[in-house]
Structures are given as structure tokens and as C-alpha cells.
Specification:
This protein is α+β, with helices and mostly antiparallel strands. It contains 6 helices and 14 strands.
Length: 242
């Protein structure tokens, strides 16, 4: 399920680390819609893996040191999930908040003006070319030290860590053992490049561009619908079919 959430800002400037503000918008919408449903997806001390991702489109943004200037004060949030129940809950939550001014930052407000269902493609082959819609985060987490390392397409470990991320993301999604199918995935760089992004004050290496993936269709469809990689629900790792 894919949605386009059309929004208007009161002021032109938003923080450079704007994705966390969009997460706050999601939380505001969902908690106003249904507190019990909100609690299914968000707990302060209990991180829950959420099967959705999002990306944001601005028209002619102007990047500054700590801010982004949006001349027309408009943005489109592209939301995608493989979970139809989750998708319907978020759709209803966005609709309920439509037309209401919501705090976006200390100096700005945001208003949802329209929520539109988008046509979702179906992957029917074992090879697909993906375009990265929001920076692809590939993370190696050390549970003993609690430290994270981030890898981009420029790193030789990229494919190995990427597949490990996918395994952790999908291992509880399907009833079958996916170990072999993940190991057999082939990832080919078509036109990717490294960029540095920031989230909650943490700078991370990431990748944007186009890559080709060969593998089982159920895996390709799942990552197309719910994102691939780390920090999907924070506005990273969203894919579209090129």
C-alpha cells in the first residue's frame, strides 16, 4: 500500500534533520486517531520494528547550513507498507488530521491537505532495478558494545552487511527459513553514490542512486513495499522500481 500525503508549511524553513519531525507528525496523527493502535506501533522503551518506510519530495529546495528552505512551502510525503492493516490505520489517521495545523518545529506548522492512494507495482520476475527514494542505510550493530557502523556502496562490506540487514528485517515475516534465499541475493551497483545524512544528531554514511537486485520474488516485493535496510520507519531506505 502506497500513499502520497500532500502537506503545506506555514513558513519556508524546516530543520535539516527534518525526518524526525515527520515521525512526530505520524505519531501525532496516530495518537489522535486511536491510542490503542498508536501503542501497537510506538513504545518509548520498547523499540518495535515497523513494516513501513517513507520518503519526502520538495520542489526546488535550497540547502543551508542547518536548514532547508522550501520556497513554495509544500512537501509530499510518500508512505509505503506491505501490511494492509497498518496502511489502513495510517491512512485513516492522516485523513482525520487533514486540514489541521500541527506543530512541525519550534518555528513552523504543517497541515495535511490531501491523502492519495498510489498505484503499487507488482514484481513478477526474479530481477528488478530499484531506484533509491530515500537514502539507503546499511548498518552493522554490535550488541556487546552497542555501537553502530554505517556502510555505503563504496565499502567492500556493503553487500554482505546489506543482506544481513535484510535477513534481520525479514526473518520473522515469513514462515519459511529465508537464510538461503537471502544468501543467494545478487546486488549490482548501476549508478550509486555515497552521501552523508543526519538523523537525531547522528551522521551516517548512506547510498543513493540505482541498483539491480536478483532474487526470489517474495523478497523483492517485500522490500519494494516496506523498504530495505535500516531505519526504514525514520524515513530512510525506501525503494521504487526504476
Amino acid at each position: 500500500m502506497r500513499l502520497a500525503i500532500y502537506c503545506e508549511l506555514k513558513e519556508k524553513e524546516i530543520p535539516l534533520d527534518y525526518r524526525r519531525k515527520i515521525v512526530s507528525l505520524f505519531k501525532s496523527c496516530l495518537s489522535s486517531y486511536d491510542k490503542e493502535i498508536y501503542d501497537q506501533y510506538y513504545h518509548e522503551k520498547d523499540p518495535i520494528q515497523k513494516e513501513y518506510t517513507f520518503s519526502t519530495y520538495f520542489s526546488h529546495p535550497k540547502m543551508q547550513k542547518d536548514l532547508i528552505e522550501i520556497p513554495d512551502k509544500k512537501m509530499i510525503i510518500n508512505f509505503s507498507t506491505s501490511d494492509s492493516v497498518l496502511g489502513i490505520n495510517f491512512y485513516n489517521a492522516f485523513i482525520k488530521k487533514r486540514g489541521e495545523n500541527i506543530k512541525f518545529s519550534d518555528l513552523n506548522m504543517i497541515k495535511i491537505t490531501k491523502v492519495a492512494l498510489q498505484k503499487e507495482k507488482k514484481i513478477a520476475e526474479n530481477k528488478v532495478t530499484f531506484k533509491i527514494q530515500s537514502p539507503l542505510i546499511v548498518r552493522d550493530h554490535n550488541p556487546e558494545t552497542g555501537k553502530d557502523w554505517y556502510f555505503s556502496c563504496e565499502d567492500k562490506e556493503f553487500s554482505e552487511i546489506f543482506k544481513r540487514n535484510l535477513y534481520n528485517q525479514l526473518k520473522d515475516k515469513f514462515s519459511k527459513d529465508i537464510t538461503g534465499d537471502i544468501a543467494n541475493l545478487e546486488i549490482k551497483d548501476i549508478s550509486m553514490k555515497k552521501i552523508i545524512v543526519s538523523s537525531y544528531g547522528i551522521k551516517m554514511a548512506s547510498s543513493i542512486g540505482i541498483f539491480e537486485m536478483t532474487g526470489e520474488q517474495y523478497i523483492l516485493n517485500e522490500i519494494y513495499q516496506s523498504g530495505a535496510g535500516s531505519k526504514k520507519s525514520l524515513g530512510f531506505s525506501m525503494l521504487d522500481i526504476a
